[in-house]
Amino acid sequence: MQVNPDNWGRQGQQRLSEPQDYADVLSAAEKIELPEDGVWLDPDKTGMKGMTMLIVYLKMEAFVYLARFDDAAKQLKEYCSSATPDQEAISLCERMAGIVLQHPECPPENAFTVLQSLTGLFQRAKDPLKQTVAERFGRWIRMTVSTALIVSKGAGFECLKSVMEYLKHEKTNAYPESELYYIVVVAWNEGITSLLCPEGRAWCVLAFDLLALLRDSARRTALQTKMTNAFRALVKDKTS
Fold first, then answer.
1. Distance (Å, rounded) from C-alpha 221 to C-alpha 198?
2. DSSP secondary structure code for residue 1 in this structure
3. In this model, does residue 36 exceed pLDDT 50?
């Protein structure tokens, strides 16, 4: 079976238009027992992979249309954690994540779970695919961090810490410098706005730790000097 997730949304929109349509599709799909991911490695069962992906996609569409966001986030999390991180799976999960995130009533907590699941799938990708999708991964991380901060400052902090730990051990150097710079700025801005609080200083430390991951040494050194001077000046001003 030819797998083309990009066409499924348009096809689904033509077929389904009423809540009962989605309820019927969901009822039918939930009765189908999906295979374990390992079965897809069998060349005699390649068609099963495409069928499984289509069923998962239709269930996601139904969950979102019926405003069952907890179920949608749970399904994407389960699929991302078990699927082989290839181009097809990543494209499918990006499309499913888009369905959830574009719904105006989706709670930020569910959106955050969806984004964490998707970026986790990206992180499991191997070379050369990892380098091919690096720009997309960086943009999804940007959205994940922004959404985490909407959920809570604590969620945002832990999200950035986990990103930092991943990048510290990432050997391909494929993560975009511009996206790394973005999360440095996010951490720094959070820190300097609450500098006298312990949380503010922790944000600033995190910003410096992220800054150390920049590959452009000249830019890294220049930013480190500016941030260090600004930090000292702000501390002096706020404590005087």
1. 26
2. -
3. yes
